[in-house]
Amino acid sequence: MSTVVPDTTTAGPAAVPAPARAPRPRRARVATGHDQRYRRGVGRWLVLAAAVLVALLMLSPFVIMLLNAFKSPAEYSQAGPLSIPKEVYLDGVQNFWTRTNFPQKLWNSVFISALVAVFGTLLSLLNAYAIGVGRIKGRLWIVTIFLVANMLPQEALIYPLFDMAQQVGLSNSQWSIIIIFTVIQSAFGTYLLASVLGTFPPALLEAAQLDGAGRWRILWQVVYPIVKPTLGVLMIFFFIWTWNEFFIPLVMLTTNDTQTIPIALASLQGDRMMDAPTTNAGALVSLIPALIFFLIFQRTLTRGVTAGAVK
After folding, report:
1. Which of 38, 70, 275, 309 is the most exposed, fewest CB within 10 Å of its CB?
2. Which residues are within 8 A (CB) of 208 and not within 5 positions of it... i.e. 6 or more apart?
3. CA-CA distances (angstroms) from residue 311 to 119, 306, 308?
4. Dihedral over alpha carbons 192, 243, 177, 305 (to 10 degrees)
């Protein structure tokens, strides 16, 4: 009978268990853009509510004008300016159109504003090119003079302007308004463009000079394409500012065939009485051409304002 003999050989040292790994510290969770927007949610809604409130306050005069433009004088007297008209009343628009000869006033306003916008922008470019790129002596003082001239009130300028217009034979002439506002608007345009052209890259100018370009060629082939968006913004501003001018055209233009739309609106109001529906209808009709002009050139305005943000 066989006997099983146990193995007495050395089996080696006993296996030691591996030490347990320490738990890794959890990384701090980085706040994503969604989390940041969520945390700022209350503040964003407050800002949005404030912006909507300001927009409603700015639109309220236009809403009141729209309500009263199609309201009869009797209904305006009984229900007040804030009531909704019960029926559409178009006699106010017709009265304004015929009483003021609106097509003639519209042509006068477009003619004067368009020429002032073109001439003012051109004069601003030439002045700013001489000051900013030409580096004339005393250019800082010249820019300061343009800025101060732009701040002068029109009441301080009207008497010498009226006297000079009479002396040169431009009394009751639309060209007197065009010349006056070309100079006035170009003061602001020169101040703005001179600061822009003062930082113009000298390398472009030196490269153009090495190619044999003169100053006139540098202006139209190097400087003009770069500042073209800014010139478009200036032209839009000059057109709208001249369109809304009232005081100087009121004094300089004395006959109906030369007056502009703001003067036509003022003629509807008497010393002791005013036809409110007709006045609101006239304001609405007068607003439409300027609104159409702005909508047409809105893209040009946006592109000109944001042109300096992208290199």
Report:
1. 309
2. 217, 218, 221, 222
3. 29, 10, 7
4. 10
Block residue for tokens 């300089």: 252
Six token digits for residue 136: 């004339």
Single-letter code of the amino acid located at 54: V
Q: Are 108 and 259 in contact, with CB atoms under 8 Å apart?
A: yes
The token pair at 39 is: 């945390």
Class for domain 96-309, per CATH? mainly alpha
Chain-centre distance for alpha carbon 296? 14
Per domain, the residue ranges of the chain are 60-89, 96-309
Please indicate, yes or no, whether the overall pTM of this predicted structure exceeds 0.90.
no
Closest CA to 267 of 112, 95, 103: 95
From start to end of the chain, where are the E strands?
A: none
Distance (Å, whole) CA 112 – CA 262: 13
DSSP class of 22: P
pLDDT digits (tens, 9 = 90+) for 162-205: 999 999 999 899 999 999 999 999 999 998 888 888 777 888 88
For residues 112-124, b (16+ Cβ closer than 10 Å) or e, as one string? bbbbbbebbbebb
